[in-house]
């Protein structure tokens, strides 16, 4: 069995993992803060963790973002990364700076099954859902990278907003996206406001209803047309969840 990637866990999941190691919940909180507030991957540097826990983690666990293929930076500070997620698949993550915020657009799938006519991701087809560690790993990597690039002082965040608006339809990867959202919101993690975490969808109505109950973050809906006839032509999902049904869920 391979090492466990700790970026796959929200705080409850990490507490359960630590419990399996014979450690108390407060150790999971300490570890969670090292991972997400400090962006640390080296267990030896996690100075307030008991040495016994650090020794257990070595060889059993890792902290790893997807492998970087390329980075492109524009003059206005926008940065686009391409990550290798295996089996010939790659996903993009984009950092967009503005005067009052830093927004990260995060991918949730390799490819997409929705097949909107205008979308290049849809034309490449669907390969697979990204795991929670691969979703969180994009934020973990970008926060570290931008902090270093901007030479921000310790404790100052580079990324203030996250939008699930990269490759894929996030609500068709609901079970693996939900823990990632909880990591983003957790005060021991990134501590983002619910209004600063947005899930963008083409209109998967049942999952909009679930998201409202499970993790009520901001919602963005891609309409692309003012009526069902045109929208069904552009966004095939509209044939299953037409506008009236979608707007009721919104």
Low-pLDDT segments: none
Per DSSP, the total helix count is: 9
Mean of the pLDDT scores?
Answer: 96
The H/E string reads: EHHHEEEEEEHEHEHEHEHH
Structural class: alpha/beta
Roughly how many Å is the radius of gyration?
A: 19 Å
Strand order of the largest sheet: 3-4-5-6-9-10-11
| Separation of the first and last Cα atoms | 43 Å
Beta-strand percentage range: 15-25%
Largest sheet: 7 strands, mixed
Tell me, what's the shape? globular
Helix content: 25-40%
| Beta-strand segment tally | 11
Structure description:
- The protein has 250 residues and is an alpha/beta fold.
- It is 36% helix and 22% strand.
- The protein has nine helices and eleven strands.
- It has helices at residues 11-20, 25-36, 51-57, 120-124, 132-150, 174-185, 205-214, 228-234, 243-249, and strands spanning 4-5, 61-62, 67-73, 79-86, 89-98, 101-105, 109-111, 126-129, 161-164, 197-201, 218-221.
- The strands form three sheets. The chain has a seven-stranded mixed sheet with strand order 3-4-5-6-9-10-11, with helices on one face.
- Strand 3 (67-73) and strand 4 form a beta hairpin.
- It is globular, with a radius of gyration of 19 Å.
- The mean pLDDT is 96.
């Amino acid at each position: 069995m391979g090492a466990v990637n700790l970026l796959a866990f929200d705080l409850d999941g990490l507490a359960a993992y630590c419990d399996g190691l014979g450690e108390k919940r407060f150790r999971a909180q300490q570890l969670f803060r090292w991972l997400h507030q400090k962006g640390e991957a080296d267990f030896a540097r996690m100075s307030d963790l008991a040495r016994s826990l650090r020794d257990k983690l070595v060889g059993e666990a890792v902290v790893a973002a997807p492998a970087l293929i390329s980075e492109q930076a524009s003059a206005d500070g926008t940065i686009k990364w391409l990550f290798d997620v295996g089996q010939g698949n790659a996903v993009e993550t984009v950092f967009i700076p503005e005067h009052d915020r830093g927004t990260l657009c995060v991918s949730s799938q390799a490819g997409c099954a929705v097949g909107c006519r205008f979308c290049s991701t849809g034309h490449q087809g669907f390969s697979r859902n990204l795991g929670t560690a691969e979703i969180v790993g994009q934020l973990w990597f970008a926060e570290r990278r931008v902090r270093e690039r901007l030479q921000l002082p310790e404790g100052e965040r580079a990324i203030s907003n996250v939008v699930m608006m990269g490759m894929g339809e996030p609500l068709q990867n609901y079970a693996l996206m939900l823990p990632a959202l909880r990591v983003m919101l957790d005060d021991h993690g990134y501590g983002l406001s619910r209004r600063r975490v947005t899930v963008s969808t083409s209109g998967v109505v049942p999952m909009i209803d679930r998201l409202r109950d499970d993790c009520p973050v901001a919602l963005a809906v891609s309409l692309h047309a003012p009526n069902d006839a045109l929208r069904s032509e552009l966004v095939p999902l509209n044939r299953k969840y037409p506008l009236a049904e979608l707007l009721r869920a919104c």
